[in-house]
Write a structure and sequence with these properties.
The structure is a single chain. By secondary structure, the protein is mainly α. The chain folds into two domains: 1-39, no CATH class; 43-159, DksA, coiled-coil domain (Four Helix Bundle (Hemerythrin (Met), subunit A)), CATH 1.20.120. Helices cover 47% and strands 5% of the residues. It has helices at residues 7-10, 44-69, 79-115, 130-135, 143-151, and strands spanning 26-29, 35-39. The protein has a two-stranded antiparallel sheet. Strand 1 and strand 2 (35-39) form a beta hairpin. Helix 2 (44-69) packs antiparallel against helix 3. It is elongated, with a radius of gyration of 20 Å. It starts with 6 loop residues before the first helix and ends in a 25-residue tail after the last helix.
Length: 176
């Protein structure tokens, strides 16, 4: 028997069922309604948060691609205007690169959840504290390891741009 399909499942989005009993993992649905991936209960919040963040990053990436794809005016009458246009284009390319790196980290964290490797430091093999995973759900390392790797220049701190809520809260006044 196929699980019921919601509107978002028909659009191909990840859908989470009601909380399961007895520690059974949640299942996600593909656009055709088939069960795709199992998410352990303890990581459902993290997976949902990462999924929302992924959607936001993909949308921002599309916007940045639109900015970068705009043709530059090469024959401006003002040298200063040409330099400004070139600078703006370089900034958009740089932001696109940062967005792509952040998207990679988020997708890698989602894969670690489905592979059963989430919440384990890739350097030490020790569990990453729950508080750290709540704040940085894409993290690969315990704080002390990340600090050490950043100081050594092995990794750069992951920046996800302007801080906003990954999921929008509904307000009672807008009727949603």
């Amino acid at each position: 028997m196929k699980p019921p399909r919601s509107k978002s499942a028909r659009r191909g989005k990840v859908v989470f069922g009601a909380k399961s009993r007895g520690g059974k993992p949640h299942r996600t649905l593909r656009s055709d309604g088939a069960v795709d991936t199992e998410i352990p209960n303890r990581w459902v919040w993290h997976y949902e948060t990462l999924s929302s963040l992924r959607e936001r990053l993909i949308q921002e990436r599309k916007e940045r691609l639109g900015e970068v794809a705009q043709p530059k005016e090469t024959h401006s009458t003002s040298l200063a205007d040409s330099a400004t246009d070139e600078f703006d284009h370089e900034i958009a390319l740089s932001r696109l690169s940062v967005d792509q790196d952040a998207l990679y980290e988020v997708e890698a964290a989602m894969k670690r959840i489905t592979d059963g490797k989430y919440g384990i430091c890739e350097q030490t093999g020790k569990p990453i504290p729950a508080a750290r995973l709540k704040v940085l759900p894409w993290t690969r390392y315990r704080k002390e390891v990340a600090d050490q790797l950043e100081r050594a220049g092995v990794i750069a701190p992951t920046q996800l741009g302007r801080l906003t809520r990954a999921r929008r809260e509904r307000s009672g006044s807008d009727g949603q």
